[in-house]
Amino acid sequence: MRRTIGMTIALSCISILTAAFVAPQGPPATQDHGALHLYPMAELQWKDGPGSLPAGARFAVLEGDPAKEGLFTMRLQLPDGFRIPPHFHSGVEHITVISGTFNVGMGEQFDRAAAKRMPTGTFGYWPAGMRHFAFAEGQTVLQLHGQGPWTITYVTAADDPRGKK
User: Fold this and answer.
1) Distance from C-alpha of 13 to C-alpha of 33, rounded to nearest angstrom
2) Closest CA to 140 of 162, 118, 115, 107
3) Rounded to whole angstroms, how far apart are CA atoms 89 and 91?
4) Theoretical Cys-Cys bridge with 58: which of 46, 65, 103, 162, CB 3.0 to 4.6 Å?
5) Taking the model in full, what pTM does it have?
6) 123-154: per-residue pLDDT in tens?
7) Is residue 126 within 8 Å of residue 103, measured between CB atoms?
8) In angstroms, how far is CA 81 from the centroid of its own chain?
9) How is domain 45-156 classified at the architecture level of CATH?
């Protein structure tokens, strides 16, 4: 009997702990849960920018607001040969390559030979604060998601396009 009571208590504790870890944590404030949101590629409304990237990039925010607290998802459209100088972010960067090839390298110097290729369909992520650089091969579309507010800090201040416009 003591063994049965002990097992019952142990199973109850496991059930409670499991429920705590898998229970929904509540919806992000940036989502409208009363509707279905679909974004066909052909219907995206691309804008020039963002201003934190060199000229030539275009973007479309799909969910949330990268400048505010909370989850966000956006797409970046980069022309062939587009380069992003060494920089870092305050949050984890999550990238999925929708089309084209994105190349990313780690370090404070732009070194094409040290970059890793991310062809169409590749997902990658790297930690906050990691110095990295990137370039596109062919017209490239990326999906970037993360936790806002999203920041980008260039290793060399002269590379920051925000002071050049």
Assistant:
1) 32
2) 118
3) 5
4) 46
5) 0.79
6) 999 999 999 999 999 999 999 999 999 999 99
7) no
8) 21
9) Sandwich (2.60)
